[in-house]
């Protein structure tokens, strides 16, 4: 037996290897994603001052928030295909450097047109980042460990709210007027520059492949490469064409669209919903907005741990979606009671955020090689359409009716639809292969026992 093969590697050695990989990659990738999502949604806090300063309507804000995803959608797939040619390390760094610079450049917005242009360019710059990271993780973790790893990485979404809410509120309260700049302008500058810095660090910190990882021992590298090769041979789809056009990829993309409708509704409108419940001060809004995000971060990790331990994927995705819908419904029903609205928004945010981390375990379970790079980009692109639809529609409803309630209820319905569609994906395709192997063994034992009795 090959001493580096997965079967020959002891459980202790295996655990040590993946622990080292996790501690090497996840903290850095988490910080990168935190910066990414912070740059994407800080416009929600800037809105609290920017609309009045620039005389923008809610419809202008909604369109600007959404046009980000037009650029994101158009360049998502090309970006991930370029990743295959350039290498993950260089491409991830390029994405972060350019979007950090553009995010800081949002301080120069003065008209609706300039707002739309900068948001569009920000989407172009960031296109491909999430699929690139998720594809990069397939270089280092087998599917049986990927739910927890993906969730740990994606806690950058809620943690951007935990950190970004109070930070954004503080910046706008205390930096406004400094050097002639408004608080919202300082917000874009101070939250954009760190992203570009992390992009430069990525160039020297990340490795393109396992064989380059000098921080792993030679036996660990050999074991990991062997384990990943063994798993990739079991993937159903491999070609770029499969990743772009296969019906299963398109189905997953539609499911993701409905879940991200809820995600972007929460991301772009949570501060506004808290304000509508009776909270006026930007710092107080920022502090309160941290509560749902902190709860969501914990939930994401707990659900992912359960999913990896059981090997079950579909219920671990659908149930959070249903919980998110319930939370959003009650946030509308009790919109003018801050305590009840906060409880409901916390439940809604927990559910919404958990669906996103759990969803991204599904595509790599089906796709391998170039199909994974293309398929992840396609799913994220289709999901990005909801980033255009969700904030714009809610903005129109807000402008027309003076209330976001009906729009939020629409997001709840979207989460329910996504949860139902999850069960159209065959369990055998997405459940952990270890779980399916155990089922096969149990079935063999039962059949063997039946034959013996016969």
Can you summarize this structure?
InterPro entries: MFS, MFS_dom, MFS_trans_sf. It comes from Caballeronia udeis. 81% of the residues lie in helices and 0% in strands.
**CATH architectural arrangement:** Up-down Bundle
SSE order, one letter for each helix or strand: HHHHHHHHHHHHHHHHHHH
Annotated CATH topology? Growth Hormone, Chain: A
- In CATH terms, the superfamily is MFS general substrate transporter like domains
For the residues shown, what is the average pLDDT?
A: 82
Which CATH C-level class is it? Mainly Alpha
| Total number of domains | 1
- Tell me the fraction of residues in β-strands, as a range: under 5%
Question: Can you characterise this structure?
Answer:
The chain is mainly α and 454 residues long. It has one domain (19-453): Growth Hormone, Chain: A (Up-down Bundle). The protein has helices spanning 11-54, 58-86, 88-105, 112-126, 129-137, 146-154, 156-174, 183-205, 218-232, 240-245, 247-276, 282-310, 314-333, 338-359, 362-366, 370-401, 405-421, 427-430, 433-453. Helix 5 runs antiparallel to helix 16 (370-401) and helix 13 (314-333) packs antiparallel against helix 14. The two termini are 37 Å apart. Mean pLDDT is 82; it is low at 434-448. Keywords: Membrane, Transmembrane, Transmembrane helix, Transport. InterPro entries: MFS (IPR011701), MFS_dom (IPR020846), MFS_trans_sf (IPR036259).
């Amino acid at each position: 037996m090959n001493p580096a093969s997965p079967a020959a590697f002891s459980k202790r050695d295996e655990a040590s290897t993946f622990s080292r990989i996790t501690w090497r990659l996840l903290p850095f990738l988490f910080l990168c994603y935190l910066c990414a999502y912070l740059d994407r949604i800080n416009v929600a806090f800037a809105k609290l001052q920017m609309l009045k300063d620039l005389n923008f309507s809610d419809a202008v804000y909604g369109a600007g928030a959404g046009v980000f995803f037009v650029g994101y959608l158009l360049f998502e797939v090309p970006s991930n295909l370029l990743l295959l040619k350039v290498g993950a390390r260089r491409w991830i760094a390029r994405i972060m450097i350019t979007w950090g610079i553009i995010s800081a450049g949002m301080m120069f917005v003065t008209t609706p047109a300039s707002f739309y242009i900068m948001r569009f360019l920000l989407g172009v710059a960031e296109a491909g980042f999430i699929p690139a990271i998720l594809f990069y993780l397939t270089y280092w973790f087998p599917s049986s460990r990927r739910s927890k790893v993906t969730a740990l990485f994606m806690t950058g979404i809620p943690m951007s709210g935990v950190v970004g809410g109070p930070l954004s509120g503080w910046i706008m309260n205390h930096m406004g007027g400094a050097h002639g700049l408004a608080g919202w302008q300082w917000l874009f500058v101070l939250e954009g520059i760190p992203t570009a810095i992390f992009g430069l660090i990525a160039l020297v910190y990340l490795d393109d492949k396992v064989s380059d990882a000098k921080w792993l021992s030679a036996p660990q590298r050999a074991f990991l490469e062997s384990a990943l090769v063994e798993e990739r041979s079991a993937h159903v789809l491999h070609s770029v064409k499969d990743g772009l056009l296969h019906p299963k990829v398109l189905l997953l993309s539609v499911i993701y669209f409905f879940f991200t409708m809820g995600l972007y509704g929460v991301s772009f409108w949570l501060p506004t919903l808290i304000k509508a419940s009776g909270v006026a001060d930007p710092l107080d809004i920022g502090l309160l907005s941290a509560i749902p995000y902190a709860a969501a971060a914990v939930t994401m990790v707990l659900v992912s741990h359960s999913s990896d331990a059981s090997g079950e994927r579909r219920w671990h995705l659908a149930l959070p979606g249903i919980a998110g819908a319930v939370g959003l419904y009650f946030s509308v029903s009790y919109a003018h009671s801050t305590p009840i609205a906060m409880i409901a928004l916390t439940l809604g945010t927990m559910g919404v955020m958990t669906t996103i981390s759990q969803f991204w375990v599904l595509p790599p379970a089906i796709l391998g090689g170039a199909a994974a790079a293309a398929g992840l980009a396609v799913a994220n692109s289709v999901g990005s359409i909801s980033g255009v639809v969700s904030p714009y529609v809610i903005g129109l409803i807000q402008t027309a009716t003076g209330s976001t309630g009906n729009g939020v209820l629409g997001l709840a319905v979207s989460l329910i639809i996504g949860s139902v569609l999850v069960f159209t994906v065959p369990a055998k395709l997405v459940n952990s292969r270890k779980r399916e192997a155990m089922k096969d063994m149990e079935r063999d034992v039962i059949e063997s026992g039946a034959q013996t009795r016969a």
